[in-house]
From TrEMBL:
It is a multi-pass membrane protein. The lineage of its organism: Bacteria, Bacillati, Actinomycetota, Actinomycetes, Pseudonocardiales. Keywords: Cell membrane, Electron transport, Heme, Iron, Membrane, Metal-binding, Transmembrane, Transmembrane helix, Transport. InterPro entries: Cyt-d_oxidase_su2. Belongs to the cytochrome ubiquinol oxidase subunit 2 family. This is Cytochrome bd-I ubiquinol oxidase subunit 2 apoprotein. The chain crosses the membrane at residues 6-36, 82-100, 121-141, 161-183, 195-216, 222-241, 248-269, 297-320. The keyword Zinc does not apply. The keyword Nucleotide-binding does not apply. It is found in: Cell membrane. Pfam families: Cyt_bd_oxida_II.
């Protein structure tokens, strides 16, 4: 395997890590006004992701940085074409991060309610925007021979990319509900588990449809295998959640997203960004890659840095592995 292909796989793995970790992260924020009945339960939900949400976002930054360094042509064409949706995603993530830090700074129901709305919108918008951009990358963009966009700034908004946006939103909702059920106790746990079971068939339907569209348009024979694994894992997750086995349900959702990412990037290869104008304009793994020297340096840096990051993040999840409930939250004094 050459270094260009290796880094294409690394970027796919980084996207997998981001979608799995930030998937439940976004889901918790999206479901904040749905699952929580009072301020104490809202604090329980925020505390389930409080120690890890910022670390989860690192995967997106590293995926973007790795794309910039390993495939500068891919980065330039995709990010310039997706400038508007990515700007909205960035603003939403900034607001979301500020909201987590600020919601408890003033002892006022109105103050907390305002920041809770920011958390909610700051979770819905990035999930929708990232799903839109990622599906557009896999399904292709109108690029000319120079890799520049052909058409308006909203050219990536098509029915199949909107399907991709709904696919990620639906997955985040189910994944977030499963995570809340896994990390909490009492009424909120049962409420989250029942919600995950109830919405899963509808919420995951766009993801199934997206995988089928990608497979039928650009898939290879072998990519039917991960597509089938994704379907089976999603069904198994639903069964396990219905049986009150939140851990297994959450794990199977992880298998489902891993298989889905494998299907998407497997169908994308050997391109990194297909052109819908002319296949000859498509950016390929080897055509868009950096020099062998750059890829070699990146590989050595990643070899030393990645284990440290994984150990640190794994340790964080281990330290905060226990369930939390309303009994762990001190009462709030409201003047």
């Amino acid at each position: 395997m050459d270094l260009a292909t290796f880094w294409f796989i690394v970027i796919a793995v980084l996207w997998l890590g981001y979608l799995f970790l930030e998937g439940f992260d976004f889901g918790v924020g999206m479901l904040l006004p749905v699952l929580a009945r009072d301020e104490t339960e809202r604090r329980v939900m925020v505390n389930t992701i409080g120690p890890v949400w910022d670390g989860n976002e690192v995967w997106l930054l590293v995926a973007g940085g790795a794309t910039f360094a390993a495939f500068p042509g891919w980065y330039a064409s995709l990010f310039s074409t997706a400038y508007l949706p990515l700007l909205l995603v960035l603003l939403a993530l900034i607001g979301r991060g500020v909201a987590f830090e600020y919601r408890g700074k003033v002892d006022s129901p109105r103050w907390r309610a305002t920041w809770d709305r920011v958390i909610m919108f700051g979770s819905w918008v990035p999930a929708f925007g990232v799903g839109l951009v990622l599906s557009a990358n896999v399904l292709g963009l109108p690029l000319d021979a120079h890799g520049d966009r052909v058409g308006s700034p909203l050219v990536m908004v098509r029915w199949e990319t909107l399907l991709g946006a709904l696919a990620l939103v639906g997955f985040c909702l189910v994944h977030g509900a499963a995570f809340v059920a896994l990390k909490t106790e009492g009424d909120i746990r049962e409420r989250a588990r029942r919600l995950a079971v109830r919405i899963a068939p509808v919420a995951l339907a766009p993801l199934v449809a997206l995988l089928l569209v990608v497979q039928l348009r650009a898939g290879e024979g072998w990519t039917w295998v991960p597509l089938g694994v994704a379907l089976l894992a999603a069904g198994a997750a639903l069964v396990q959640l219905a049986r009150v086995r939140e851990g297994w349900g959450f794990a199977f959702l992880g298998v489902a997203v891993a298989a889905a990412v494998t299907t998407l990037f497997g169908a994308l290869y050997p391109d990194v960004l297909p052109s819908t104008v002319d296949p000859a304009n498509s950016l390929t793994v080897h055509g868009a890659a950096s020099s062998p020297y750059t890829l070699t340096v990146m590989t050595w840096v990643a070899a030393f840095g990645t284990p440290a990051v994984l150990v640190y993040q794994g340790w964080t999840y281990w330290v905060f592995r226990r369930r939390i409930g309303t009994r762990h939250i001190p009462p709030v004094h409201v003047p």
